[in-house]
């Protein structure tokens, strides 16, 4: 016999395991909130922008070919910014107890689309330190690039600043809790259906028919104790009424 599951069965399973599903969801949300608010170190980000051109050679205007060449060199500049030639100097000037590899992991370098503007972003647990590193990288790059690539026209467009109340970029506490709620809810529902699938107890006449492979000829309705007691009272009341009518007659 092909086993089918109706929507009613699914809803009954969810209703039956509602406490389990709710418990798993709450545990996931609370665990995520505790970890996000008390155990994960907040990370702040500071960014600066620089503009890199080739030497002007006393020209007041750039030709399209020169601009295109500058754009093609942006990827090279991005690599140089994160190279030991720049980062070692930054670590030395700021007295950072970080290796080049460790400092490199804190830095993100990206260029604006079809422009010669480079964004340097630094992430650190200290917002002031993040801004100091970003500004120092821009300054060191500005001073060293002329030696490395004979480029003498680097401008710092915007320095990294620390606001009065800087906000961390991660962790996203509210988002983490929301994700935990969704994951906990899905896990709870999955566990509920899994438990129901492995539950071999006979719950209704369909289970009897499926287990024994025999047709059901009839069923005995279940009447709880409260219902039985109510029927007894009604019967006793009717009998008392009849006795009274018999005596009167």
Automatic annotation (TrEMBL):
<keyword id="KW-1003">Cell membrane</keyword>
<keyword id="KW-0812">Transmembrane</keyword>
<dbReference type="Pfam" id="PF02706">
    <property type="entry name" value="Wzz"/>
</dbReference>
<feature type="domain" description="Tyrosine-protein kinase G-rich">
    <location>
        <begin position="141"/>
        <end position="194"/>
    </location>
</feature>
<dbReference type="GO" id="GO:0004713">
    <property type="term" value="F:protein tyrosine kinase activity"/>
</dbReference>
<dbReference type="InterPro" id="IPR032807">
    <property type="entry name" value="GNVR"/>
</dbReference>
<dbReference type="InterPro" id="IPR003856">
    <property type="entry name" value="LPS_length_determ_N"/>
</dbReference>
<dbReference type="InterPro" id="IPR050445">
    <property type="entry name" value="Bact_polysacc_biosynth/exp"/>
</dbReference>
<comment type="similarity">
    <text>Belongs to the CpsC/CapA family.</text>
</comment>
<dbReference type="Pfam" id="PF13807">
    <property type="entry name" value="GNVR"/>
</dbReference>
<feature type="domain" description="Polysaccharide chain length determinant N-terminal">
    <location>
        <begin position="3"/>
        <end position="94"/>
    </location>
</feature>
<protein>
    <submittedName>
        <fullName>Lipopolysaccharide biosynthesis protein</fullName>
    </submittedName>
</protein>
<feature type="transmembrane region" description="Helical">
    <location>
        <begin position="20"/>
        <end position="40"/>
    </location>
</feature>
<feature type="transmembrane region" description="Helical">
    <location>
        <begin position="177"/>
        <end position="198"/>
    </location>
</feature>
<keyword id="KW-1133">Transmembrane helix</keyword>
<dbReference type="GO" id="GO:0005886">
    <property type="term" value="C:plasma membrane"/>
</dbReference>
<keyword id="KW-0472">Membrane</keyword>
């Amino acid at each position: 016999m092909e086993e089918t599951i109706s929507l009613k069965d699914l809803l009954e399973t969810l209703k039956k395991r509602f406490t389990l599903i709710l418990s798993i969801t709450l545990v996931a949300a609370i665990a995520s909130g505790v970890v996000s608010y008390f155990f994960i170190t907040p990370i702040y980000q500071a960014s600066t922008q620089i503009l890199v051109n080739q030497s002007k050679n006393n020209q007041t205007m750039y030709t399209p070919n020169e601009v295109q060449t500058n754009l093609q060199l942006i990827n090279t500049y991005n690599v140089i910014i994160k190279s030991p030639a720049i980062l070692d100097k930054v670590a030395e000037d700021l007295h950072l107890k970080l290796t080049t590899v460790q400092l490199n992991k804190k830095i993100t370098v990206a260029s604006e689309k079809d422009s010669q503007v480079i964004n340097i972003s630094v992430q650190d647990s200290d917002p002031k330190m993040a801004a100091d590193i970003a500004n120092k990288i821009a300054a060191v790059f500005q001073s060293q690039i002329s030696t490395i690539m004979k480029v003498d026209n680097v401008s710092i467009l915007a320095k990294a600043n620390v606001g009065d109340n800087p906000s961390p970029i991660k962790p996203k506490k509210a988002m983490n809790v929301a994700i935990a709620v969704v994951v906990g809810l899905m896990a709870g529902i999955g566990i509920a259906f899994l438990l129901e699938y492995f539950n071999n107890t006979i719950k209704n006449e369909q289970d009897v028919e499926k287990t024994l492979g025999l047709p059901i000829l009839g069923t005995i309705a279940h009447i709880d104790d409260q219902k039985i007691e109510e029927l007894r009272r009604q019967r006793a009341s009717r009998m008392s009424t009849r006795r009274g009518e018999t005596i009167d007659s």
